[in-house]
Each structure stands twice: as C-alpha cells, then as structure tokens.
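Researcher: Next sequence.
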Amino acid sequence: MAEQQAVSADLMVEVGDFIADVAGVKLSVSGSNLTLKNNKDEALSTVTVGGGTGDYDDLTDKPSINSETLSGNKTSADIGVADAVHSHDADDITSGTLDAARIPDLSGTYAAATHSHGDITSGGDITAAAATVASGDMIVINDDSASKVTNGPAFGSDTTKYLRNDGVWDVPAGGGSSDTGWQDITPASGWTNYSAERKVQYRKIGSIVEIRGAVKRASSSITLNETYQTIFTLPSGARPDRDVSAICQASGVKIWHLQINSSGVVQAGRMRTMNTTTYQQATTSEWMVFDVTFMAG
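Model: Next structure:
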C-alpha cells in the first residue's frame, strides 16, 4: 500500500474552475496523486501530477549523435567518433603541431642536420663555408670557372687545390695554409725568361703569394712608357684583391714600374734611368728583375 502523507493547512484550493480559500483542509500525497480531504477525511479532489513515463525506451524523442539514436549499448564506431586512445596514418595529419613524443625516431634512417659527404661529383656552385675539408682531401669541380668556389670551404693543411675541367689544378680563394711550391709561369707573347736560373715563377703559402724572376724582350725592343705591357698572368687563387705596384731594377741604372692587377695580369711600364724623365726601351738583352710579395684576394 502506497505511503500517504497528510498535511493540514489553510490552502488556496483550485479544483477545475472552482477556487476557494479553505481552512482546515488536508493535503494527501500518494505516489503521483494529490488528494484534498476535509476534516472528515473525505476526498474533495484528486489530482495526478508528473505524468510521462519512467522508462527510457518509452521516450518518443530520444537524443542522438551523428544521427545515431542513443539507446542500448553503443560503441564509438556506432556513433561515428574516435576512441579515446587511437592512432592516425601520416597522410591523415594535414595541420596542427605534433608533440615531440609523437614524432618517430629517425636516427639511422635519414641524415642528421649536420653530416659529411665522401666524393662530391656534382651539385652546382659551392657558395658557403659549410665544412672543413680534411688534410690531404681535395675538391674536384667539373667546370673551368674558378668562380665556382665563391666562398670556399675552410681547407685543412695540404689542401688548397681543386681540379678544373680544363685540367688545371687551381687554388680556391681563401685556401688553407699549404705550400704550392715554386710554379713556373710562361711569359706573355713578345717576352721570354732572361735565363733558366731566372724563370718567371710564383709560390703561394696560405694566402701569401710571391712572384720572382727576370724577363727580357723575345725578339724586338719596345719603349716602356705609360702604356703598360703585359709580361705574364697569374693563375686564379694567386691574385690580389686590388692592384699591387712595385719599382724594380733593370740593366745598368734603369728602373721600371711593375703592376699586378686584380685580374692576375702583370704588366711593365715607365722604364727610365735614374733621375730622368725620358722613357727607355726594353731590349732583347734587357735584364728586368723582380721579386714581389702580396696577399691573395
């Protein structure tokens, strides 16, 4: 039997369209029924409150997710959502930032950000000093342009040359401290070495270049005036970064002006005797000696 509670109070009672201020009325509650009784315990009116149903399956407008009605035991797949713990294919990730712990270990599979190479046979211009070439190693560049090494790597000891496509071993700008030894240079057309002991030569130790020798005219005399004459050309890597000048000795009391251009062209001009202003001729027996040191550009 349902438990009932009775409450005596002065109530404003509304039954249908009848409203009255009733004194000494009991309000009896039994389940969802409210009953008004008089002091004789006679029912005046019974009202059912709440209504509806207590069974979820009896609901006519149940909630849903992704058009799937929520009833019974539903899995994440049933309602179209991911499990709390799940994985993705790499191709599925198109945005966002991955936590470091989610990035796989690539060691042993890909090259590190800083790594080394063996022989480099191609790859375009070398423009940055990204690595040091070890002692005894060399760079082979299949191009006849010395400008291909524009900001040369740092070269170790005994490593200052590279082989150009024209078969010339050249010295990159900014090469290391190795010694090229004395290298012969063939004089320009119209000029020749003064003697076998005074051949035109250059030597580079690190960035310091020295030229030495003596020349004379090969077949005919020429006046050395303000129009300078080319006597030989220095190879790439053994040239100054700007013009270099020197006053040199010639036969007797003659002097002459030697000029080394940044292009490597070495020229002679302004030959005269001491304390005179008259330009003199360089002859086939002229002894024009020089020995000049400068820093390579």
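Model: The radius of gyration is 52 Å. Residues 1-22, 142-147, 149-159 have pLDDT under 50 and may be disordered.
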